[in-house]
Amino acid sequence: MDPSDSRSEGVTATTATLPATADRALDFDALYRESRDDVFAYAATLLRDGAAAEDVTASSFERAYKKRSRFDARRGSPRAWLFSIVRNAALDELRRRNRALTTALPDPPSEPGPDEAAELAAERDAVRAALATLAARDREVIALKFHADLSHAEIAEVLGVSVSNAGTLLSRAMTKLREAVDA
């Protein structure tokens, strides 16, 4: 890099002058690193379209980054706040496209042995087929719990319901999923 190049002059000073409250309230870099895969999995579950999930994931992180100074730790965890943004972005996408949820979930990245792979594939197919029979709300609650790894309190915050209601919704959704897998 040419030391006489002044394009980057003042950049360090500019980025170093973030409001102190934003730094203390939300470590956005850590939130991104901890949540990016979970956010994508959650969006993919809601949208059932990998390309749309990538777009929603990117736009959600962009929205969260722009609104990071408004995060209030007293109102909930950073993950719950982020997943509320993701949920709203995914619902916006579904409304914009006005389409049915029909595409498959993405496959996990790891490669097991041949026998194990066949067994896992059969189990995955059974769960996917069972998930496809559930109502969108049930799929969403399951995705928040197992893809996003949110607590009942965080799920309640994302969905705008009480903690006990979130637990009840999850329990009923899991019962429906088990019944659908066993059918």
Write the layout of secondary structure elements.
Blueprint (H helix, E strand, L loop, with lengths): L10 H6 L3 H6 L2 H20 L2 H17 L11 H20 L16 H20 L2 H11 L5 H8 L3 H20 L1
What would you give as the CATH superfamily?
RNA polymerase sigma factor, region 2, helix turn helix motif
Give the proportion of residues in helices. 55-70%
Radius of gyration: 20 Å
- Bin the strand percentage: under 5%
Number of domains: 1
Low-pLDDT segments? 10-24, 99-104
Distance between the termini: 65 Å
Which geometry do the CA atoms define?
globular
Quaternary organization: single chain
Just name the CATH architecture. Answer: Orthogonal Bundle
Strand-pairing-aware structural class: mainly alpha
Average pLDDT confidence is: 80
Annotation field: number of helices? 9
Look at the structure and give the CATH class. Answer: Mainly Alpha
CATH fold group: Rna Polymerase Sigma Factor, Chain: A
